[in-house]
Specification:
It contains nine helices and no strands. The protein is mostly helical. The protein has one domain.
C-alpha cells in the first residue's frame, strides 16, 4: 500500500509512524531536488558556471565540519570520486545540513545510475576539487578526496554499497 492510499482517519493509531515516514520523505525530497538541479546543470552546459562550482567550497567546509560524525564519515568513504564530485556541486549551503543527516552513498549511487549522471568527463569540477582539496590538506575532506581519487586510478570507481569495488564485464 502506498502512502497516497493510506487513510489516517481510519487508522489513527498509525499517526506517529506516518509522521516519521513523512519526515524521512521530506528529507529525501530536499536531497533529490539538489541532485536534480545539478543533473540539469550538467546536461545543459559543456562547462559549469562559477555559481555552480562555488558549491564545492560549501560542500568541503561541510565535510570538514561534520566528518567527526561517524555515520556521515562512513558514507563519505563509500562514495566514488564521481559520487563525491556530483555531491559537491549538488547542494546549496543551506541544504547541506540535510545532507549530513541523511547522506547514503548507496542512494547517491542509485540516483546517479538511474538518472545516468556522471562527472568523470567534467574537467572543471576536477580542477576545482583538486585545488580546494590541496588547500584542505590535513583536514578530513582531503583524506576522503584522495581515497576517492585512488579508486579512479585503480579502476575501482564503480563502488558497491559496502564500499568495496566491483568489477563488471560486458
Amino acid at each position: 500500500m502506498g502512502i497516497y492510499d493510506f487513510n489516517l482517519y481510519a487508522h489513527p493509531e498509525s499517526l506517529n509512524e506516518i509522521k516519521k515516514e513523512l519526515t524521512i520523505l521530506r528529507e529525501q525530497v530536499k536531497i533529490v531536488e539538489g541532485l536534480e538541479h545539478a543533473r540539469a546543470r550538467l546536461a545543459a552546459t559543456v562547462s559549469l558556471d562559477s555559481n555552480t562550482l562555488s558549491k564545492c567550497s560549501a560542500f568541503i567546509r561541510c565535510v570538514n565540519d561534520n566528518a567527526f560524525k561517524p555515520e556521515f564519515a562512513t558514507e563519505l568513504r563509500k562514495l566514488s570520486w564521481d559520487g563525491l564530485a556530483f555531491c559537491s556541486i549538488s547542494f546549496e549551503e543551506r541544504r547541506l545540513q540535510y545532507v549530513v543527516r541523511h547522506l547514503r552513498a548507496s542512494d547517491i549511487q542509485t540516483y546517479m545510475r538511474n538518472a545516468v549522471v556522471s562527472c568523470l568527463d567534467r574537467p572543471e569540477i576536477s580542477k576545482r576539487l583538486n585545488r580546494l582539496s590541496a588547500a584542505s590538506q590535513g583536514k578530513p575532506f582531503h583524506a576522503f578526496y584522495t581515497a576517492s581519487l585512488e579508486s579512479v586510478y585503480t579502476g575501482a570507481d564503480d563502488q558497491m554499497d559496502d564500499g568495496k569495488s566491483s568489477q563488471t564485464s560486458d
